[in-house]
Structure to design on (337 residues):
């Protein structure tokens, strides 16, 4: 009987297209398989899938469309063997309108079967943007990875994805509480109207008069743990971009973002993409793959740990650890609200 990881399902998101989410997912899967783990990659981009192309599978015989339309009952029946030993692939639906917009029932059926797949690790490659589908996949996954590059737009989109995921989780928590939903939607409005400008201000406004709602927000925040990876790093300044995301998330969202690692730019990775041949990544020990191997080792360690909250209520409200932001916080070359 194989040992199952405590955290088996990992989602890779980032908001912006073209930052390397798919090749990162593939490379991470290869590194985990090198460590003797059975890995399943799922292309969760419902409507613009391309992970199968990177794997050299040009005409997938079955895709998520077949599962969503109940042509196939079990998700495991969609697994396609790949050229890389230890890695199976579930292809996303490509340009199918119905598959790109699954119903709530379809989505629940899909999510319930993901963690039941027979593998040590299941890696979800999310598409670009902040659609509810991607946010729900991300929030459902115990392992949450955000990928970014040093580009200003990529950093803003990474922060925007994290913020949207948190607000989506909170809005689902308070789906039957109209007053809380309205408060969440109005957050960040005019300060003179008395509207909270940050999660900490929201907690402060709830703490005394609405203890039940306060406790629910604290619970959601405590288990919203996110790991960050900066891709295509060419110099020290690029690597330091991770700190910008950390600081902005701390100041505005009261979230502690953990840095999982940095991936240096590597021409070998670009060659693997252009040749749609994953074996190029397994045969060449480039600098990016070496860094990915370190990230895979960290994920192995994290996956063995119990699923616990990353922060206590006292730490969440600690003004010294999480200083209250001004109305606008500027970082070198970037602006976030």
């Amino acid at each position: 009987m194989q040992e199952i990881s405590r955290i088996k399902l990992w989602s890779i998101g980032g908001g912006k297209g073209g930052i390397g989410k798919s090749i990162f997912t593939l490379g991470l899967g290869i590194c985990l398989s090198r460590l003797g783990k059975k890995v399943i990659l799922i292309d969760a981009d419902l409507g613009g899938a391309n992970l199968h192309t990177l794997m050299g599978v040009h005409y997938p015989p079955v895709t998520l469309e077949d599962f969503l339309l109940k042509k196939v009952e079990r998700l495991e029946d969609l697994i396609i063997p790949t050229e890389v030993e230890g890695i199976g692939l579930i292809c996303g639906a490509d340009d199918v309108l119905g598959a790109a917009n699954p119903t709530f029932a379809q989505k629940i059926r899909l999510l319930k079967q993901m963690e039941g797949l027979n593998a040590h690790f299941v890696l979800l490659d999310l598409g670009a943007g902040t659609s509810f589908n991607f946010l729900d996949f991300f929030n459902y996954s115990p392992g949450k990875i955000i990928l970014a590059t040093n580009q200003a737009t990529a950093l803003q989109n990474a922060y925007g994805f994290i913020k949207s995921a948190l607000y989506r989780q909170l809005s689902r928590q308070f789906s039957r509480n109209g007053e809380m939903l309205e408060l969440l939607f109005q957050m960040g409005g005019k300060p003179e109207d008395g509207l909270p400008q940050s999660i900490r201000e929201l907690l402060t406004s709830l703490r005394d008069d609405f203890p039940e709602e306060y406790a629910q927000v604290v619970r959601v925040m405590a288990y919203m743990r996110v790991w960050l990876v900066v891709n295509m790093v060419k110099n020290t300044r690029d690597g330091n971009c991770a700190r910008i995301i950390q600081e902005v998330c701390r100041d505005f969202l009261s979230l502690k973002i953990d840095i999982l690692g940095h991936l240096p730019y590597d021409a070998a990775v670009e060659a693997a993409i252009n040749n749609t041949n994953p074996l190029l990544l397994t045969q060449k020990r480039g600098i990016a793959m070496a860094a990915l191997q370190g990230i895979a080792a960290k994920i192995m360690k994290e996956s063995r740990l119990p699923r616990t909250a990353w922060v206590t209520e006292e730490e969440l409200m600690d003004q010294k650890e999480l200083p209250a932001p001004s109305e606008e916080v500027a970082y070198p070359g970037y602006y976030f609200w």
In short: The two ends are 50 Å apart (CA to CA).
